[in-house]
Amino acid sequence: MHARPSSVLVKEASGFQSEFFIKLHGYKVNGKSILGVMTLAAEYGAELELIFEGDDENEALKKITELFNNKFKTD
Amino acid sequence: MSPVSIEITGRPASQGIGIGKTKRLVKKQQVIQPEKINPADVKYHLEKVKKAKEILNSDFEDLKKLTKDPEAEKILEAQIQLLHDPELEKLINSKIENDHYTAIYAIFSSFNQYIEILNSASPDWASERTIDLSSIRDQFLKAIENKKERFSVQSGDIVFAEEISPTAMIRLSDVKIAGLVLQKAGLTSHAVILSQSLGIPCVIGAHWNKTALRDNMDAIVDGTKGKVILNPEDNYIKQFKSLQKDQESKRKTILKWASKPNRTKCGSEFTVRANIEFLEELPRLVTHGANGVGLLRTETLLFEAEEFNVNDQVEFYKKVVEASGDYPVTIRLFDAGGDKLLSDYETEANPFLGWRGIRMLLDNKSLLKKQLEAIYRLSGNYKGRVKLLVPMITGIEEIESVKSVCAEVEKKLKNASIPYDESMQFGVMIEVPSTVIMAQSIAKKVDFFSIGTNDLTQYTLAVDRGNDKISDLFDSDHPAIWKMIKMTVDAAQKEGIPVSVCGEMASKPEAAACLLGLGIKELSMNPASIPGVKSMVCNKTLLEMKKISDEVLKSEKVSDVHRIFKNGLKEK
Q1: Domain boundaries for CATH 3.50.30.10 within chain B
Q2: For the ranges B65-69, B143-147, B344-348, B523-527, the one whose mean pLDDT is highest
């Protein structure tokens, strides 16, 4: 994943209590870590599995899904 | 005994003379040895990491407040985010807690671990400038060593560096340095553009590392000639000081021309626009009196963007249009290739005769469509103010191909009910001799011509300006070039379309006067040159300029043209 979208994703995810992990090809990284997300090397069109665990997991899921759908534009 | 004076020659990058003390900004490649600590000291080392992080954090925050550039702000935000990365923190802490390494080694090796992973995961991440891991690592290390002189450049220093990162440049722009000397960097790098807009004399391609340069030596930087003098003799300093004064007062007088109306002595109007590549240059549109942007270069967008998307482009273009007041902006499609070759493309034997400009774009339809879509979307909000310019056209076939792609984009936007300017002007660069010869046929197909004198010169005279052995043959004042410009103007006038000149030629006052004499009404140049050009052409009547161009067209040798420009015309 490129630096800019990674940065947006991590910023949003860090606002939630829940733990957040991203899985790709059996590889799992902390979604609140910009370095973690960048090491995923996710190409455009890659299928990612998003895992949320915590009290606000539903809100987090909603917000992050939105982010992916809007191609990481925040406004 | 006074020390020996040393002269270093480089390339001029930002005009002016700087006199001050030398200061090197050297990237030290430090290697930290793995050292173990006493388990009792774990807490102390964890605390050290935390403190260094706080120092760095407040440094970055301070810088963020200082900068007004949104791009720089984004870079700093990303750096702050990285500083607080939970995985990085875990790794560093575990190296201290579990492996009992020193804080400094824990930081060093943790960063390196990530640099290695990222290098193997996606080799091109390092070319992205948003997050420079090794630079943050080094700043972190310095913070933990509690080195106070982390950035000890003072006002009046002449800074010597290999190259300068955008963040370092933001810091430097706050301290009023006297000059900048770089070993690397190109004429269009951020550092150079910023030093121009801040009026800091700058020389690039100067191999100061091969001299006995130390900090705190007396030095002179001549950004106009591309020279650096270390340990100058006293009378030299005197000379340069008076030269500096002259230049300064001349610059001030000339700058007054920026706000004067664009009218020749006889009252005939003309237009002067700016060539722009970076957002940092935009404030100069107003200060230097540009009537909008006559050439917006978009290559940097392509090279620096991590991901090429339509929205980011629209945002970039929007900022340029907004900064142009009510004036138009001419956006040139990516003119990549040649000397600006993308790294992952194969090198060509003759890049300037190769796969570049519109040739590359027509082979990369998705890229072309994305750019056209961005420009069309923009035009919907600024009707009549956005113009499209196609580079490296050699014939009508290419114009037809680009137009059919435009039609596809228009159809897509129409179907999606997205507004665009249906009468957006479509122009082509005249930079290949074939288009000059075919100018009249081409003029029937397009709304305007823009003459790129640099490329037209190199293609007409068959000279590679980068080749030292023959670079003196590269001269836009060659009579053949003037005749070609004349042919282009004639063809355009017959078909009733406007011609502008956006090459380096337009920025030279004498040549600019000659261009107006040929009947050209629009010039586009780097903003810094506008006042000087205006000081020349506002002081002449069209008839006087016509006489100059008549004389130039009669010339048979380059030296004849030079003489006309140097001596002016004899009054009869």
Answers
A1: 1-233
A2: B523-527
Q: For the CA atoms of B220, B222, B225, B226, what is the dihedral angle to 10 degrees?
A: 80
| Out of B35-39, B149-153, B280-284, B289-293, least confident range | B149-153
Q: Rounded CA gap, B94 and B383, in Å? A: 59
Strands laid side by side in the B227-230 sheet: B6-9, B227-230, B218-222, B17-25, B157-161, B179-182, B202-204, B11-14
Say which residues have a Cβ less than 8 Å from residue A20's Cβ, sequence separation at least 6.
A13, A30, A31, A32, A50, A51, A52, A53, A60, A64
Q: What is the 3-state secondary structure (H, E, C) of B488-501?
A: HHHHHHHHCCCEEE
Cβ-defined contact of B87 to A30 (cutoff 8 Å): yes
Which pair of structure tokens corresponds to residue B164?
A: 């300068």
Q: Has residue B250 got a pLDDT over 50?
A: yes
Among B304, B441, B450, B459, residue whose Cα is nearest residue B391: B450
Q: Which of A4, A7, A35 sits opposite B87 (nearest CB)?
A: A35
The answer to whether the beta carbons of residues B190 and B278 sit under 8 Å apart is yes
Q: Does A24 touch chain B (CB under 8 A)?
A: no
Judge whether A25 counts as a catalytic residue. no
ipTM over 0.85: yes
Domain with CATH 3.20.20.60 in chain B: 254-566
Cβ distance A2 to B74 less than 8 Å, yes or no, reads no
B254-566 folds as TIM Barrel (3.20.20)
Separation CA B318–CA B379 (nearest Å): 10
3-class state of residue B557 by DSSP = coil
C-alpha to C-alpha distance for B466 and B471, rounded to whole angstroms: 7
Domain assignments of chain A as residue spans, ordered by start: 3-69
**Is B120 in CB contact (< 8 Å) with chain A?**
no
How far away is chain A from the Cα of B454, in angstroms, using its nearest Cα? 36
The pLDDT of residue B572 is above 60 = no
Least confident among B13-17, B74-78, B139-143: B74-78
What pLDDT score does A6 carry? 79
Cα–Cα distances in angstroms (integers) from residue B408 to residues B179, B369, B398, B415, B416, in the given order: 50, 8, 16, 11, 13
Question: What local confidence, expressed as pLDDT, does residue B105 receive?
Answer: 93
- The structure's pTM equals 0.67
A37 touches chain B (CB under 8 A): no
| A3-69 to CATH, choices 3.90.1210.10, 3.30.1340.10, 3.30.300.20, 3.40.250.10 | 3.30.1340.10
Sign of CA dihedral B288, B292, B295, B296: positive
Q: What is the mean pLDDT of chain B?
A: 87
The model's pLDDT over B190-248, given as tens digits with 9 standing for 90+, comes to 677 778 777 889 999 888 877 788 889 999 999 988 999 999 999 889 999 999 999 88
Write the pLDDT tens digit of every residue in B524-538: 998 888 999 999 999
Cβ neighbours of A41 in B, within 8 Å: 121-122
Residues in chain A with CB shorter than 8 Å from the CB of B311 are 71, 73
The helices-and-strands tally (H runs, E runs) of chain A is: 3, 3
Tell me the C-alpha distance between B304 and B75, whole Å: 13
Nearest alpha carbon to residue A9 among A54, A56, A67: A67
Q: Is the CB of residue B253 less than 8 Å from the CB of residue B498?
A: no
Class of B1-233 in CATH:
alpha beta
The pair of three-digit structure tokens given for residue B109, joined into one six-digit string: 């090796």
Give chain A positions within 8 Å (CB) of B74: 4
